[in-house]
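Ticket #342: bound-state structure for zinc ion.
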Amino acid sequence: MSEEKEILILAIESSCDETAAAVVKNGRDVLSNVISSQIDLHTLYGGVVPEIASRKHIEKINQVIQAALDEAEVTLSDIDAIGVTYGPGLVGALLVGTASAKAIAYASKKPLVGVHHIEGHIAANFIEHKELEPPFFSLVVSGGHTHLVRVNDYGRFDIIGRTRDDAAGEAFDKVARAIGLGYPGGPKIDKVSKQGNPDAIAFPRAHMEDAPFDFSFSGLKSAVLNYINGCRMKGEAYSQADVAASFQKAVTDVLVEHAMHAVEEYHMDKFAIAGGVASNSALREAMAKACAERKIKFYYPSPVYCTDNAAMIGVAAYYEYRNGTRHGWNLNAVPNLKLGER
Ligand code: KG4
Ligand code: ZN
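RESOLUTION: The complex was predicted; output attached.
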């Protein structure tokens, strides 16, 4: 029996504040996953400073790529294609990754495969769930995105719902800052909420009559700010843990409700969450319960594959490579790249 040739992808991700590179075999096996996070640096400013992010990426990217090859115990000559995130994200940050990928692909005469960042987040689910194959439904919740997506096939998507304003992660980060938890807010709210009462404060859940699968989090964020200001004006102390837990419950309730509504409407029996907020413990728990009640198989990546990493880009790049996607030396960073555009 002839063995199928192994395909090795070297993947690069630099769309926000992590400089990352990975080597992925046959789209499912992660041989290395190197992440250099800039979080400590941006924490000083309370959020990601784009100019600083770009400069740090330039400083780190070559070391990170070399470390990914070394950890995978391969050299560039073993690699079949170079995958890279070319959007959406911060333009200066994306440019560092795309320029590096183009230089490596050109010098080593390897094909270049540009990847949509969200396609990467969804593909993170393939790493630890070898049996997962499209079609399935996905909720992508990150610092920049909140999308309900029908994954029709590898690299083929229909967006069923999206946020009208803030992304879920953005709401976590803003509320965390308001209640004095600092950046990055998501993991901190997740932790503090464990000490709080999620039913202590009735924060609003937004529903759009004309678009049942869309989200809106700016009203919720304002309600939290109003609540805090109200307490301050009355000279009353508020419980940080109760505010965090009640806010988190308001976000997860809406995410779960819309996701389950969509899964039922589209008759899907598989559901996967993705993106930084997918590592939220309350969201995972609530989604697992809601899926179990409906006999829907629920998938989620380990936390390291939820937040930005290059392994997920390597997985998405493998399927794009197999679908015949090739990019030229004119591949550019596209900060507002739409999912499914190529
Ligand atoms: O996917 P990601 O690393 O970057 C983007 O593509 O945006 O997501 C980062 C976002 C941040 O907003 C962060 O606060 C949020 O994910 N996040 C969380 C948790 N871990 C990260 N939000 C809620 N709970 C968490 N445990
Ligand atoms: Zn991301």
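RESOLUTION NOTES: The pocket of KG4 (ligand 1) is lined by residues 16, 142-144, 169, 172-173, 184-187, 190, 275-277, 279-280, 307-308 (CB under 6 Å).
TICKET STATUS: resolved
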